[in-house]
Amino acid sequence: MEDAPQIRRALTEALSVWAHSSKLTFREVRSDQADIQVLFARGDHGDGYKFDGPGMVLAHAFYPGVGRGGDAHFDADEKWHFTRGERGDSTNFLGVAVHEFGHSLGLGHSSDQNAIMYPWYHDNEVDINLPADDRNAIQQLYGSKDKTWGPFKPPTRPKTPPTTTTTTTTTTRRPLVYYPQNRHNEPYDPRRRYPYNNNPHQRDRKLPTTTTYRPRTDSPPHPTRTWYPPPQPTKPKKLKPDTCHTTYDAISIIRREIFIFRGQFLWRIGDHGLYPGYPTYTHRLWAELPKNFSKVDAVYENKDRKIVFFIGRYYYVFDSVTLVSGYPQPLTSLGLPQSLTHIDAAFVWGYNNRTYLTSGTLYWRLDEDTGRVELDYPRDMSIWRGIGYNIDAAFKYTNGKTYFFKGYGYWEFNDDLMEVAHPRPKLSARKWMHCPRLVNEVDEEQTWTAPLISERNETMVYYSPSSGASWNYAQRRMVFWISLFLISHRLWTNISWTTV
């Protein structure tokens, strides 16, 4: 590369930033056994995480480990600049390199917007003195430069990486078995006895009546029954949700129509508005969903026009209304953690047309080509400023904009500013169901509910203006978060690197 001398100087400077605040030392080696290998590549370059050309994804790095662990890859299609103070339409290579080497050393992303490890690129000049958040993180792993340690001999990297055995487990779907209703407590209709009177013109023959008198005998009285079994409870019929006063479990564009899910019901909205006869049972359209499900957690239509439902710990893929063979599959087959019990929302972000999954305080990006979440996830939901945690639903509308839902309200998201377009949510029923405004309805600007997270116990507490509190803008945007990144294993401090 013609910029090789500038690249080498920038890489050396980027590594020195991390060495300045820790006990790390770096040296360049001309060997493929380096701990950190640097690669410039275009498009698909063999690691399963292809680049997308100028803009968007600038680089990626792998956490420490054998093989490609610790390596950093940069998109060769990007327009880089290597000189301090240079601006314009090019990208600051030094700033990106410091960030990626942070991943190579074992650091995750930070929610501090001033940190080097903040996930979004900002064209700030890199200082040799790390921001406090990054400095604390690197010293947590490798210690402070001014702190003395006992004698420690760093391990050498093995010339032959250890072999690993991967076992693939295939889970087959258990066949559904249906049992007839056992009506043991209901008598059958008695069978009629012979002869049958099937001739309507035949008259019954009248026989003379006789009266027989029997002598009365005194018999002992029978005991009186004082206890009766309680009546069996009847299963209540599920009530349809109120179209103009309900929350949404999931919402998505499917075949260019809006589908809104609540409990076991759904609404369907086309070009001419809400279809008549809705809400109706979700099973009427997707009969192969589980019979006993209580709600749809999330749903979206992928790039292959397959419809993906998330219910509990499993997801279902449908081709129109037919379940695709091999499904359902557990969430863990997507690379999600075993501890995850459900997905809050699944949506395609209009900014980059990539698929995102959210649950609680975290979100993941799903690679539709590999069918697994990407390497550098999960991340904290605070990146989506103004949305908060534990959202109910999200989807990309036909106008390309992304909308988030919580409670009875929704936010439109500003992709360029990475924050909500309006700090107060608007009423969902008015926008999506076209419900009329009630005479005594409180203005939607006053129905905002502010989520706060307690610093002491991280418990979500909700405050509403309806309780008499007066909220200003700063209070509404107040979110306290605590983030702790732990690495359970020690990494050696004498790290070598090379360029490829």
Structure described in brief:
The protein is mainly beta and 500 residues long.
What would your notes on this structure say?
The chain has a five-stranded mixed beta sheet, covered by helices on one side. Strands 7, 8, 9, 10 and 11 form a five-stranded antiparallel beta sheet that branches. It is mainly β. Helix 1 (4-20) crosses helix 2. Among the domains are: 4-146 and 488-499, Collagenase (Catalytic Domain), CATH 3.40.390; 250-435, 4 Propeller (Hemopexin), CATH 2.110.10. It has helices at residues 4-20, 93-104, 132-142, 428-432, 473-476, and strands at residues 25-28, 36-41, 59-61, 72-75, 80-81, 91-92, 250-254, 257-262, 265-270, 273-274, 280-281, 298-301, 307-311, 314-319, 322-323, 329-330, 345-349, 354-359, 362-367, 372-373, 379-380, 393-396, 402-406, 409-414, 419-420, 426-427, 450-453, 460-463, 494-499. A hairpin with a 5-residue loop joins strand 22 and strand 23. Residues 162-175 have a biased composition (Low complexity). Zn(2+) 1 binds at residues 45, 47, 60, 73.
